[in-house]
Amino acid sequence: MKKTIFALALAVSMLTACGGKAEATSDLTGTWTSEKSGDSYQEAVITDNYIEINWMSKDTKSLYWAGSYIAPESAVTEYSWTSENDTEKTGSALLASGDDTKEFTYKDGVISYEASAMGTTKTMKLTKQK
What we know:
Largest sheet: 8 strands, antiparallel
Structural class: alpha+beta
Mean pLDDT: 85
């Protein structure tokens, strides 16, 4: 009987680790990064009420977005917010988005948004760094 319960518990934990849903969270603060494309990627830092995203490469860091962040009021597995551009910061940044607002979505442990540069738009997907 004990072996059956142990085997069942092990199987459930393996299934959860392999494809289970992300745990609910109300804290999205911290550093988030996209997958690298060559040597470049995007890095977002979220604080209590602010999000800043930079294009990162081996030797450079260029501002892409700076704006408001509205935290979820309770633990969530899906969440979205509209960030207002901090034009005082982005106005003089060559690679910064000129959008007035940007939609961000958090789902299953990933923050996503659309990023445009040089006429190309891509959905960026960021995961939290530990």
